[in-house]
Design brief:
Number of helices: 11
Shape: elongated
Largest sheet: 2 strands, antiparallel
Number of strands: 2
Order of helices and strands: HHHHHHHHHHHEE
Strand order of the largest sheet: 1-2
């Protein structure tokens, strides 16, 4: 069987192509490999079996003449001279904690303006309404006895009313209000900032206005007769036509004087601890404000205007409002937690819970 000429030519062409490709790859590989070292014929003594002479050891510092050794050049690291580069790559803290002696209080014109306007408006309108006599006072029952009062409040009825005590209590009230003005001005000089003085003034005004409004609201809601009203009712006990028509005689709870002085003390103490924590000023402010609040409260009781519980409640309410208002103006920071709660498990099933706060 004979093979067709066309197939024979195709086979020959395929074999020629494979041989050419093989030769091309071999040439490329030889070009890429480094030149091989020349083969040196062995000396005559190696062929005869004689020992080869030992060459002297080369020095470790010997170098070939065609490749001289270059000493390394030390690289000196220099600080960047560009200010922009320094500010860009220098790590800086994200938050800078405020100093203890610096201003850490702030005021919002919109929020504080609205709050101050509402508080002043409510306090002013309620005071005007109470002064009109529109609100009818609570009448004391003819069967009332002092045993129905708390033991601490009975002394307000059994005492002899001092007519000068009311004037003295007013002096204490005005002294507390005057201190708020003086302390606000002094803050501007101590801190060297008019803004700090403005913030303190807003805090004082807001605290006093809210205290006055809350006091009037409590007076209208409770309508507790004053001690002088109880004394007058006991005097006219056998008079069936007697009726108390004085609206102010039924506004005993709680004491507005004690509340205002307590609020001023609360704000002043908080500001002192915030702005001068390392000095004796906060403690003197706390002691002086507490003594003035107690003094005004005692004088209000001696004047027959309030029961002891009235002045205690007023002082507590005012001091609480003052501290709260001042605290709400403290600058919030990312690293400062006001209140934190912790829990430590015990050996058994129980544990210990802790509650901490930052004044």
């Amino acid at each position: 069987m004979s093979v067709p000429p066309t197939i024979v030519r195709s086979q020959r062409l395929l074999v020629s192509t494979l041989i050419a490709s093989t030769l091309t790859l071999s040439s490329a590989a030889r070009a890429a490999d480094p030149p091989a070292a020349p083969v040196v014929a062995p000396p005559a003594h190696a062929a005869s079996g004689a020992a080869a002479p030992v060459a002297p050891a080369a020095s470790s510092t010997a170098t070939t003449p065609d490749k001289p050794v270059v000493a390394p050049v030390p690289i000196e690291l220099q600080a960047p001279t560009s200010t922009k580069r320094t500010e860009t790559f220098e790590p800086k803290p994200v938050y800078t904690a405020p100093t203890l002696g610096g201003s850490r209080l702030q005021a919002d014109p919109i929020a504080d303006g609205a709050m101050l306007g509402i508080a002043l408006g409510f306090a002013g309108l309620s005071t005007v309404i109470l002064s009109t006599g529109e609100i009818r006072p609570q009448q004391i029952s003819s069967t009332f006895t002092t045993s129905q009062l708390l033991g601490i409040d009975r002394t307000a009825i059994m005492q002899t009313v001092d007519p000068n005590a009311a004037v003295i209590s007013n002096v204490g009230l005005y002294a507390a209000i005057g201190y708020t003005v003086i302390d606000t001005i002094a803050t501007g000089f101590r801190e060297g900032s008019k803004q700090a003085a403005l913030v303190d003034g807003i805090i004082y005004a807001e605290a006093l206005a809210i205290t006055a409004g809350v006091t009037n609201l409590a007076k209208v809601a409770v309508r507790r007769p004053r001690p002088t009203a109880y004394i007058a009712a006991a005097t006219h006990k056998n008079d069936p036509t007697y009726s108390n028509a004085d609206s102010d005689s039924s506004l005993s709870f709680f004491s507005g004087h004690a509340a205002i002085v307590g609020a001023a003390t609360g704000v002043a103490t908080y500001l002192a601890f915030t702005r001068s924590p390392s000095s004796v000023r906060p403690w003197l402010t706390l002691a002086g404000g507490t003594a003035l609040t107690a003094f005004v409260g005692v004088e209000r009781v001696r004047a027959g205007a309030h029961f002891p519980t009235d002045v205690i409640a007023g002082a507590m309410a005012g001091a609480g409002i003052g501290v709260l208002v001042a605290h709400l103006h403290r600058e919030d920071t990312a690293k400062q937690r006001r209140v934190w709660i912790g829990f430590t498990p015990g050996a058994g099933e129980g544990g210990m819970a802790t509650l901490g706060g930052l004044f």
